[in-house]
Amino acid sequence: MLRSGIDDVNENYEYRQSFGDKALSDRSDSGDGAFQTNSSSSLLINSDAILSFNKTVGKFTVTANGGANYAYNNSHSYSVNAGSLVVPSLFTISNVFPGRLTADYSWSTSPTYSVYATADVSWNNQFFIGVTGRNDWKGNLPEEKIHYFYPSVSAAWVISETFHMPEVIDLMKLRLGLADVGNGLVRSRSIDTYTFESPDWSNTVKTANINAALVDPHIKPMHSITKEAGLDLWLLKRRLMLDFTYFVKDQNDQLGGIPLVQGTGFTSMTTNVGDVRSKGYEWGLTLSPVRTTNWNWDISASFTHYKAHILRLSPNFAPKGYIFASYDGKTVVKIAAGEEIGNIYEQNPILRVKTGKYAGMPLLDGDAGEFQNSPNELDRTQLGNYNPDYILGLNSSLRYKGFTLNLVGSYRKGGKYISVNQQYMESNGRAFTTLSSGPNNPYWKGGRTPELGGMPWPATGSSTYDNINNNNDNQRSDYNDASYAKGVFLNPNYTGDPAKATDADYIVNGADPNNTFYQFPYNSYGDVIWNFTSTRVYDATNFKMREVSLTYTLPNSITSKIRVNNVNISLIGRNVFQWNASGRHEDPESAFTGVGTNQGILRATLPSIRSMGFKLAFEF
Amino acid sequence: MKSYMKKIFVIILLAGLISCSKDALRQNDLLQQKDAIESLNDPFLLSSIIKKSCLFYQDRGWGITVLPGAVQYTMRNYQGGDNYYSAFKGLPTDMYDAMDILKFTDSAIKLSKARGSDTHVGIFTTFRVLLFSFITDFYGDVYYSEALKGREGILYPVYDKQADIYTGLLQELDGASALISSGKDAVSPTYDLMFAGDKTEWLKFCNSLKLRLLMRASAKFSDAGSKITAVAALPLLSESADMDASIDYVGTNPVNSWVGGSNNWANSGEFEKRRPCKSLVDVMASLNDPRMAVWFAPIEDPWTGNPALNGVSFNTTDPNGYTYTSTWEYIDMTNPVIAAQVPNILDSNKVYAGFVAGMNGDFKNGNGHWNTAAGGTYGNFKVSKYSKLFQENAYPLLKAQIMNKDEVQFILAEAAAKGLITGNADTYYRTGIRYSMTRWGISDEDITTYLAQASITLPGDTPGKLAKIAQQKWIALFSVATEAYLDLRRTKLPDIFKNGLLGTYQFPLRYRYPGNESGQNRVAYDAGVATLSPTVDDEFSKIWLLQ
Known about the structure:
Helix content of chain A: under 10%
Number of strands of chain B: 8
Structural class of chain A: mainly beta
Mean pLDDT of chain B: 92
Oligomer: heterodimer
Strand order of the largest sheet of chain B: 1-3
Radius of gyration of chain B: 28 Å
Strand content of chain B: 5-15%
Largest sheet of chain A: 17 strands, mixed
Number of helices of chain A: 6
């Protein structure tokens, strides 16, 4: 068989900003608004040649396919950008403010060649063995070329065909699978490249930037090896169907960038970071308790659970065996052998007392009584793991004559998410938590008014310590809104080595109103927003009624007369109802959309939209 | 049927061959493009390094308030942690920002060396020294000999001792000046944003930088005198015809504009949040310094003790032609609102007043500003703002500065006063003042009047001389806060450490290492911290230069 497909996508769009935040008086100096036009096209041609072979000899059946694939990709994109306009709201390129015109043009081409083969052998419909193999050649320029081979084998045994089974069992099947999927980027080169900066420095002078890529000279393609074993069991004339799969997925020599200190001249090195193993199981269940001429009820459920750990790190990775890599900007993740994937940590390690009765309490600085960063990275608090304990999908379909009631729901148990929405609301002063420390806030105490927990400011000079007087006396407001950070500070009169301080050398902030470093509530909650992501970590457990629909199918006796088929009339509700364990009015699921980065971070996403509708469908 | 199949096969085979061809894959284009982007010609390297380095320095000299706050040029009216060194408690990443430019510079040196462009190699090496000196001056021991060698397999570079770094940097400067002198390659007048292709100026900059570093380490070298004497004899940025190591702004986009202009700070209020510090304003006022009118704006509603002046307005036009309207306000003790502010009123009957050093966070009543309803979050009608000059996108007086020639004169003045060189301290000192004032557009006549004052004369005793020189250098380094901070740290002059409300705050002596060092580069980090005194990675520990 020969086949070829062409996918040609062309896109044009414009970005128009009428005006921004420039004062009228500044417009003559720097213009206002913006205009951008973009055009991009991409062409993908995919061609296959496949030979098939089919033969039955005795009880053996052999099916084999062999083929070759060629994929060609060619893409272009142009953009012209007027960063500021002379006349606001006039969207032409010639209206660009002098010096603010930039343009971009880029293209790429890439070929991929593959050959592949599959073979399936079965014996007497009882034993099945499948073998596949594929080799890919990628890369355009000779130095970029790379190729890798990946095979898979699978085996299945239909036990119910081999042995005589009780009548309740319709099918019993054992599955085993082993697949190795190779993946490698094209062989990227370890080089420095230069690009001109845009816009130019001036009409006569251009400047450039360097892009320094460091690629491990010994880099290998990565392999994703999946081993799985499963059982299919159909019972009671298929009224009960169960499938169960246990899997172990190893991602060996995972490709990635390991962060480097800038002293190397590079921010990261592309290399084989290490091995990650995921283990888990899935089961699916379909139940048909009622099956009569008029009534039919099917219930199905699916369950997924898995955990992933880092098994091994590349030997040239982090001499101490761990590294913290930045995650969403306010949190970090730890890369270390044994680390469970999904753990998120605080951005800042907070300095805390190490020994004695105050161990674990934040050690505040001696000038303003504020939280301090610890130089030891391991002093970071773990915020939680974003992976769920399990996800349960539920489906129910109940039919009575022409009427069908469908319910689709999902339950996600466990896992944490971080609400950036909450952070934004707090930093903009739009959250109640900014009015007062509240009953559950472990980090500060106080509020904007006495009713909200604000305290009176102590009289001028009422502390025994100059540092505290200096701090409090220059901040005092006219309101009783004094607040403070919870923690201890070193007695200002203590002159010894801070590391050798004992319990007696610490003073608990807030214990004595005269010897407390006070702050405005604004500064207190501000500190908390920036230093403690833990105040906005929530349980992601939720149940969602994704769809409820009631459908009426017109009987054939009517529809055949008007020569249409399958006439359905439905009432459909989507996202009808949601329950969140956290009780918050945001959808935890939106923290888990998208693949790869920033799982578990809920950042200014729209809530899921509830829709109610009516649908009429028919076929001619 | 068979022939039909054959035909289709042939057509597809042909199509396949065409699509596989080099033309379709644009391999020649790609190769050419790769060759081009892996290299860059000398002029582009030069303009880029100058631009990056100057903007890096000016950002720290003025754009962010950490150092301008620490040296009491600028106090913040709002979000004022920099008024009392707050940022030093964090883990500043300036080291990495400098490393970014160093990476570019290091690659540029390799490219130019391969082409035999010796002059350019010399110039680039000068910048390499400048940026490495920035890092070590602010942090202490850092990577130097093992730095920038990721491709050679050094992923965890160890730190060099600061003493060794200084020795290395001084040697590199010797090599750089030799290359600039001997190099035959021409420097593009257009792309040389700093010295317009004048190689002698580059040589002078290279030597002046060496002078700066030697003075910084003079307490640590037993032969500092002879070393400084040797450099002082070389061509320096010392003639009035010399240019400064700085570049002009273009003013057409956010990057090539002065930070205070509408291209960067449009409507952010940032301009109003920054006020000249009282420490600076008071010293300049006591010396009748004409630079005050260039730098500062008259107070909007200055206090007066004269009831007759209450509500009387007057206009001021500053030397650059910007105009301001001010209205006197009488300190009316019968008005309870004003009477309540009396403890805060520090400056009255003055047209210029600064913000008190070390003033806490968001203090709204600076110098008795009572009308917070009209002033809003950061308005203050009783303290000067900076002049409208600093709101320009580009202006001849506004530059992205690394080193000015007045700084060279003040270094020589200090060296002469200390007896490290034989020259006349007074001559250097006065030339320094003259260069600084000329740089800010002050007329020769006004400079002469200023210099004739008794308050400018150097006293006879050495400590008195040094204090006076340091005071003038501090004023001259205004808007070059990186150097002002390093000088203040080294000389402890002028003695402004307890000014205003800074009494309980300790002056920080260094930056703490960025978090990635203690995390990823732990072995090197631990060794670096071990050479601090005391051996703690905080902002008060002494680096080798201060030990």
